[in-house]
Specification:
Elements (H helix, E strand, L loop, with lengths): L4 E3 L2 E5 L5 H13 L9 H11 L2 E9 L2 E13 L3 E6 L9 E2 L5 H14 L4 E4 L11 E14 L4 H7 L2 H12 L3 E5 L2 H18 L6 H11 L3 E8 L2 E11 L2 E9 L1 H6 L1 H15 L4 E8 L3 H8 L4 E10 L16 H8 L3 H12 L4
Organism: Novosphingobium organovorum
Protein name: FemAB family PEP-CTERM system-associated protein
């Protein structure tokens, strides 16, 4: 796709992501769009591609030079899971961000052409304007739900907003011997990644390379930080969050085995709610969880209501459907085996595998 192709007054083209002016233009488009998410931003999809050795693309649609639609993309290639054009990679959101006057079908056609040029057999759209379920496209709904609600006006109201049973757990965590710290420095990153690695191993999931988390932190700048809960000087729960259009999204987080006994995760999320409001945020986006999973019920216990999500996927003619969902039945045995690995071995092997999950 070396040259743009026109349909009426509209044209689709690939943006030169090495051009700082183009990056700034995309960031401005997302910032002004009501449906923009952190995952539409170059700060996300360019950062994750750089850190994982994959390639980022931005497919846009313009009318008379004005940007009317954006499709952020990461071309993720894995010898284990195959290749995919994901919008966006390593994200739970993304997809087509379209303004009035855009022509989504034309952009989806350009996307399929790009996949063909890259010999990529699969596309995944994790939100946004979706195509019709035809011509290789399939829609999947109800498998995941998102959880978000407004933040309360003060600390006491935030605690009261939590349902009684979960509120009791938070009160116990507040009485415990726990310390909370928020930052972006090397000590924060190292503590977070140590907890993150242990948490992912315990879940049976290959851990992402630390470079991925660092790259997102650097890409978002002051719009991302790490909140860590420690006990007797040791980090037991930690979360990396991003901030976008008045909402905080705790994205990469976890806890050690000890965290449950200490109720450190309960303390972590409550403290993040308070911290986010002090930063000027008005909404808490708890992110997505698989329907009826443990995380799904955990978020409901906090008073968040599930919002079903619909994703779209495309498979090239004759190609097998891509399977890279760590929660799938197909990968259940691998998950159980991974949970038994020594932490050191899991930490060495995990980033090699995880950079291709996308």
């Amino acid at each position: 796709m070396n040259a743009p192709f026109a349909i009426g007054m509209l044209r689709e083209r690939l943006v030169d992501l090495s051009d700082p002016n183009e990056i700034a233009r995309l960031e401005a488009f997302v910032a002004l769009h009501d449906e923009g998410t952190p995952f539409h931003r170059p700060a996300w999809f360019v950062s994750v591609a750089r850190a994982t050795g994959n390639t980022a693309y931005a497919l846009v649609q313009e009318r008379g030079g004005e940007l009317v639609a954006l499709m952020p993309l990461d071309h993720v290639v894995s010898p284990v899971f195959g290749a995919v054009l994901a919008s966006s990679g390593f994200a739970v959101g993304g997809g087509l961000l379209a303004s009035e006057g855009a022509d989504p079908p034309a952009l989806f056609a350009a996307l399929e052409e790009l996949a063909a040029r890259l010999a990529c057999p699969a596309i995944e759209l994790r939100g946004g304007t979706l195509p019709q379920a035809a011509g290789g496209w399939a829609l999947q709904g109800a498998s995941h739900c998102n959880f978000a609600r407004d933040l309360a006006t003060d600390d006491a109201a935030e605690l009261t907003a939590i349902p009684r049973k979960q509120r009791a757990e938070v009160r116990k965590s507040l009485a415990g011997d726990l310390t909370v710290h928020v930052g972006r420095g090397e000590a924060d990153r190292a503590a977070h990644y140590a907890v993150f690695c242990e948490s992912y191993r315990n879940l049976g999931t290959p851990v992402f390379p630390r470079a991925l988390l660092d790259s997102v932190l650097d890409g978002f700048g002051e719009e991302a930080d790490i909140l860590t809960v420690t006990h007797e000087g040791r980090a037991v729960a930690s979360v990396l969050s991003v901030y976008h259009q008045g909402a905080v999204m705790p994205y990469w987080g976890g806890g050690t085995w000890e965290a449950r006994r200490l109720r450190a995760n309960d303390r972590m999320y409550y403290e993040l709610m308070l911290h986010a409001r002090r930063r000027g945020m008005t909404r808490f986006d708890f992110g997505r969880s698989k329907t009826q999973s443990g995380a799904y019920h955990f978020k409901r216990n906090w008073g968040f209501e599930p919002e079903p999500l619909t994703y779209a996927s495309w498979t090239a003619p004759g190609a097998p459907r891509r399977e890279a969902n760590p929660a799938s039945a197909k990968l259940a045995l691998q998950i159980r085996l991974w949970q038994r690995l020594p932490l050191g071995l899991a930490n060495r092997l995990g980033p090699i595998i995880a950079r291709g999950i996308g």
